[in-house]
Amino acid sequence: MTKFVLDMVDRKILSELDKNCRISTILLAKKVHKSRETVKYRIQQLQEKGIIQGFITSINPNKLGYYMFKVYLKLENIPEEKEKFLQTLRTDTAIYWIGISDGAFDLVFAVLSKSIPEYYSNVNSLLSGWKHLIVTRVLGSMVDTEQYNKKFFLEEKNSKVHTFGGDIFSYTLDPLDGKILTLLANDARIPILELSRKVKSSVDIVRTRIKKLEEKEIIIAYRIAVDFNLLHKEFFKAIVYFRSLSQKEEHALGEWMKCNPHSLYYIRSLAPWDAELEFVVDNYPHFNQIMNDLKKQFPHMIRNTEHLIMISEYWMPAYREILKGSEK
Q: What CA–CA distance (Å, rounded) separates 273 from 90?
C-alpha cells in the first residue's frame, strides 16, 4: 500500500476540515494562507489519493429515539465463515458501525434499537446462526461518547468536544429535515445551493433548518474520514477497567483525553469494563507510551487495561436507516 508524506499545508487543510468540513473554500484558504484555487486542488488531490475517504455529518441517534448498543466478538479462525458473517452484518439495517480488530476481540459492532427488548431479540436472532464461529461474545451499552477533532495532524494539545449518546429524545423530523439530513449524511460538504436545489427548497429555509438541527444536537459535527494507513498511522482502542471513579476523577480523565494530541474518542460504557479510549498513533510502542502515561497520571483510578488495534471500520446501513421514515 502506498503511503504519503503530507506537507504542512495539507496537514492544516485536513485539520480545519475535520473541525468543520462545511467550511467554505474561501475561508479555508485564508486560514491556511493559500489561494482558493490551491486549496481546492489540494482537497481534490487528498481525495484522489484516498487519504480523505469522505465528508461525514455526525448525527446523534439518541436524539432520534435510538439507544446504541455494542457487541464484542472473538471468532474462530475460519476465514471463509468470517467473510460470510461480515457479509451478513453489512446488510443488517440495525447495525450502525463495524470495526474489524486484532487483540482482545476480532470484531466490534454497534447496534441501534428503540428499546432494550428489541435489541436483545435482534442480537440473539442475528448471532444464533453463527454459534460455530463465535468463541466469545460480550454485550454492552454506550452511555455517551466524547468525540475529539483529529489533533494529530498538527500535534494540537486541545480540542473542541462533541458529545453524542446521552438521554433519549424522540425528535420528529418532517420530510424536509429528513431529506436534508440524508444528503448531508452522504456528503457533509455539499454546497448549500446544491443542497437546496436537491431538496426543492430555498437557501434561506435550508440554512435555517440546518441551524435548528444543530441547536437540537441532532447534527453534532461535520468531519472527515481518513485512511490512517496511508498516513503511516495506527488506530488503537484501549479497554479500561476502573477501581473507582469519582466525579472529580472523571472530569480529570476527560480533560487529559481532550488535551492528548492523539485521542479520538472517550466512550463511557455499561459493559464488563468502564470505558473505551481511542487513539491514532504512529505504532504500538507509541500507543504503549500513551497508556503508560495514562496509568501514571491516574494510578488510583485505573485497575487494568486491554487493547485492540482497529484494522478497518465501516459506517453501516443504520446510519441512513434512521432517517428513512422522514424522507417521504
A: 27
Cβ contact 51:7 at 8 Å: no
Grid cell, residue 307, equals 487493547
Q: What are phi and psi of 308, to 5 degrees?
A: -125, 145
Does residue 309 contact residue 236 with C-beta atoms inside 8 Å?
yes
User: What is the pLDDT confidence band of residue 81, given thresholds at 50, 70 and 90?
Assistant: very high
Cα–Cα distances (Å) from 113 to 69, 240, 303, in that order, read 8, 25, 32
**Mean pLDDT value of segment 166-177:** 89
225-255 in b/e burial notation, b at 16+ Cβ within 10 A?
A: ebbbbbbebbbbbbbbebeebeeebbeebee
Of residues 28, 8, 33, 25, the one with CA closest to residue 16? 28
Going by their DSSP bridges, the two strands 234-242 and 67-75 should be labelled as unpaired
Please write the tens of the pLDDT for every residue from 56-69: 999 999 999 999 99
Is the torsion defined by CA of 162, 164, 166, 172 positive or negative? positive
> How far is the C-alpha of 253 from the C-alpha of 171, rounded, in Å?
32
Please give the span between the terminal C-alpha atoms of the chain, in angstroms, as a whole number. Answer: 43
Q: What are phi and psi of 228, to 5 degrees?
A: -65, -35
